[in-house]
């Protein structure tokens, strides 16, 4: 359970560390940070009345005179910023403190669930948001990763077929290095961390996601058999870390220290590469 002002506070003799309340340089975008801490984009809604909702955020403030960190819920209504005190937080990291504050905001009834639009087949707003965000190409995670790769001096093809003989495109392709990068949406590809089975039309969506997982595995195998390296990135992963991992893999390939045929899962995947070649995890983990 998160602590609050009724339980005292930890930092009585010294200031809290900056990591407990301050955003670090190079961190994910503020909206992504808030979404993760709240448990999803649609867990951040404040009811304004008349069926209207506003997207809120949590602000952490250090009060140096008392050495306490206080959390405030902030949102915009009719062009004006609104603010409501939530609680005091005492964790060592900003992420933990944001998560604790969001939970307190829910416990205090400061947040509200938005209803699903009429006719929606999604089981929740979180599922609907994932479905909408991962249609087609040029999604927000793709654009963020491509920008970072370009800033590192890397040049690539976008939404291209690694192999002409298979009708499947990768999100980012390095033809000369024979590296294909896929940015996988958590809903459509069955992310082990964030995917939640649909309640409505459960059989249809189960078959759909299982089919996507099997297709991913088949794509990996076909590319590897043709001498390509496959890198898969989940949409929830930090694009900065993903870009750095891809950059390292490319540098290693160009230096001749990495086998060309392999699968790499950036972040929290379970795909391994051995001296004898890649060991591909079960479909769905990719």
From TrEMBL:
NCBIfam families: vsr (TIGR00632)
GO molecular function, one term: hydrolase activity
Organism, scientific name: Kitasatospora paracochleata
EC number: 3.1.-.-
Origin: domain of life: Bacteria
Alphabetically ordered keywords of this record: DNA damage, DNA repair, Endonuclease, Hydrolase, Nuclease
Ranges annotated as biased composition (Basic and acidic residues): 1-20
Name of the featured protein: DNA mismatch endonuclease (Patch repair protein)
InterPro entries: DNA_mismatch_endonuc_vsr (IPR004603), Restrct_endonuc-II-like (IPR011335)
């Amino acid at each position: 359970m998160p602590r609050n002002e009724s339980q005292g506070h930890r930092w009585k003799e010294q200031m809290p560390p900056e990591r407990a309340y301050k955003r670090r340089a190079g961190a994910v975008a503020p909206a992504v940070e808030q979404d993760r801490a709240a448990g999803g984009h649609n867990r951040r809604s404040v009811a304004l009345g008349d069926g209207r909702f506003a997207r809120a955020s949590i602000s952490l403030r250090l009060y140096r005179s008392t050495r306490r960190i206080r959390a405030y819920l902030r949102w915009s209504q009719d062009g004006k910023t609104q603010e409501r005190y939530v609680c005091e937080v005492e964790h060592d990291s900003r992420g933990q403190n944001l998560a604790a504050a969001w939970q307190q905001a829910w416990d205090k009834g400061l947040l509200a669930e938005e209803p699903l639009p009429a006719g929606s087949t999604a089981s929740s707003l979180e599922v609907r948001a994932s479905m909408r965000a991962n249609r087609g190409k040029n999604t927000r995670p793709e654009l963020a990763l491509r920008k970072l790769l370009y800033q590192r001096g890397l040049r690539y093809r976008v939404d291209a077929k690694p192999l002409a003989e298979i009708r499947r495109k990768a999100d980012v392709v390095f033809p000369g290095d024979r590296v294909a990068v896929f940015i996988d949406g958590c809903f459509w590809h069955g992310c082990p961390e964030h995917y939640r089975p649909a309640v409505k039309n459960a059989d249809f969506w189960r078959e759909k996601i299982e089919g996507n997982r099997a297709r991913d595995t088949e794509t990996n195998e076909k590319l590897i058999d043709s001498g390509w390296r496959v890198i898969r990135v989940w949409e929830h992963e930090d694009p900065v870390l993903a870009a750095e991992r891809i950059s390292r893999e490319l540098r290693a390939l160009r230096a001749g220290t990495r086998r060309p045929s392999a699968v790499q899962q950036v972040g929290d995947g379970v795909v391994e590469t051995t001296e004898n070649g890649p060991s591909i995890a079960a479909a769905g983990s990719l």
